[in-house]
Amino acid sequence: MSTSPPILSPLFLIIILTLTPPLSSSPQPPTTCIIGSGIGGASVAHFLRRHSHTGPIHIFERNDVVGGRMATVTIAGNTFEAGASILHPKNYHAVNFTKMLSLKVKSDDSDESVSLGIWNGNGFVFKTIEWNSRFSWLRSIVGIVNSVRVLLRYGVSLFKMNRFVEVTVDSFLKYYQPFESRPVFGTVEEMLKWAGLYNLTTRTLHEELIDAGLSYLLIQELATVITRINYGQSVSISGLAGAVSLAGSGGGLWAVEGGNWQMAAGLINRSDVALHMGEEIESISYVGSAYELNSTIGNSYKCDVTVVATPLDELNISFNPKISIPDRKLQHTHATFIRGLWNPAYFGLNYVADIPELVGTIENSDIPFTCISILKKHSEKDMTYKMFSRQPMTDALLDQIFSVRNETIRIDWGAYPHYHSPEKFAPFMLDDIHLYYVNAFENAASTMETSAVAAENIARLIISRASSEPPSISSDNVTSGFIRSDLHSDL
């Protein structure tokens, strides 16, 4: 006896379909596109992953190397920093990156401190004593003598300058507080005011140092030498940038052995990103519910979130809708590397040994460079030098400063903003959706660490704003670009 299957009533079918959940109801994680592979862009990717961002991340780099303004040059088999060079012992993000990536630290050795000379264009207004000896105790005595000579010249103003720097650094350390006590900031102004640093951006460093009781001599000489070395500018820069610059002249400074660019490369490698090398983004448009990024090699990408992690000042990215940011001029620093021997006659001296290892300069338009330092002594007649200047150094001018030039390498950096007061800041959010700008913070101060601090805030801002928004576009809409395994090569 055969049996036929039961016939389900229409009402029963409706009940079954109503109670059965869909096969897939979870939203796609958002796709993030980051423009720039420097420490800012790499840090955004790192902090997104650290804060449980699971969506695809794409990084676009227009050059064939990662690292942005962190780069190296190789001369005579030795590697030297060509861009961002030094880190402060309280740069805690950089410290953590270095430990996490197992990078080797190259510390500032106080026993091998370089001799300093302050050049006014006609002569050295101040020089420390240089005494080469294999005995560490003798080098220590020379260091003490030089400290006394500096103290005799600048007096208690030295301690007042140190105090000014310490107060600023202590305020900056608030950015490392736990999330429970540290909010997410929507603007640079909010971020600076919360830490008590905003007022420093409304006045010049010169004004701040005068109010701090520093002498005219120290401001015009030592403070000016430091700001010209670190930012290529005078004490007329904003107070916060100036304080950060002065902090970069203290002890305990360090760098990554083999190049600071390794921090960016390591963060990118650990962050599970698609890296598009040699691909420049030329337009960003908000279309429907996503950003469409078009590159100069003809590729198109769609992203839920777009982060600009490179200065917009000298880029030709077309935005639709248009964005509005304050006009800003970059300070170009020309880094010139010379292997040879400098000419003592240029400095009014008779012997090469009489020239200090670091020649800093006061603010004088007739001086063609901001500083010159010896990077390595290959022999008594063969050395590698690094020179910073505001304008390109011509061969004729270099031949006046150096009696021998066996190798010359020139690099033009759009290094940092041209600082002034009061500063005006671009927004962190370039629109009301999900277009972000890490480098807005650079008008406060431009360092590797400030880029990382700004990047962490951007990552937290992205996550906090996305948590209450509708599901994102599918990651299938992003076409993976060509990923290079060689993240860096020497310039």
From TrEMBL:
Keywords: FAD, Flavoprotein, Glycoprotein, Lyase, Oxidoreductase, Signal. Residues 1-25 form the signal peptide. GO terms for molecular function: lyase activity; prenylcysteine oxidase activity. Pfam families: NAD_binding_8, Prenylcys_lyase. Its cofactor is FAD. Residues 141-470 form the Prenylcysteine lyase domain. One of its GO terms (biological process) is prenylated protein catabolic process. The keyword Lyase applies. Belongs to the prenylcysteine oxidase family. This is Farnesylcysteine lyase. It comes from Heracleum sosnowskyi.
